[in-house]
Design brief:
With about 140 residues, the chain is mainly alpha-helical. The chain is about 80% helix and about 0% strand. It has helices spanning about 5-30, 35-65, 80-110, 110-135. The longest helix has 28 residues, at about 35-65. The radius of gyration is 15 Å and the shape is elongated. The termini are far apart.
């Protein structure tokens, strides 16, 4: 049985994934500027990937006896293309920090399935952060 703390952390992760999937989709719609066409496509793709993460985490939380949240975290939208990418990079960096804590907690509770799930999601988030960082360098 998972601890209440781990269940709460999983719900925090779901809220974060819902947040960024909405945020990135709106950024996809709102991106303007000379470099926006290729960035818009990536934002849409990443938004869909993030929704998939929310689903996977919700399924795990449900299995562990928790009730998945339907409320996203705070969504930041708007601004220049640089501001959009910076907000998205910050969101990824925050997710990376949270997911490392979840992995550590899952290991402590000997919940190896949750650990593996978050190792996979963490790898995706690190790729997203790297991509946003690279795009910001090219601006």
């Amino acid at each position: 049985m998972a601890s209440e703390q781990l269940l709460s952390m999983l719900n925090e992760a779901i809220a974060r994934e819902l947040q960024v999937s909405i945020q990135y989709m709106w950024h996809h719609v709102m991106a303007r500027g000379m470099h926006s066409p290729e960035i818009k496509d990536r934002l849409k793709t990443i938004a869909i990937e993030e929704m998939g993460h929310a689903e996977e985490i919700a399924e795990r939380l449900d299995y562990l006896g928790g009730v998945p949240t339907t409320k996203p975290g705070p969504i930041k939208v708007g601004g220049s293309l640089r501001e959009i990418l910076q907000d998205d990079l910050t969101a990824e960096q925050e997710a990376i920090e949270l997911y490392r804590r979840i992995i550590k907690r899952a290991m402590g509770e000997e919940d190896y399935t949750t650990k593996r799930l978050f190792e996979q999601v963490l790898a995706d988030e690190e790729e997203h952060a790297d991509e946003f960082s690279t795009l910001l360098e090219g601006d």
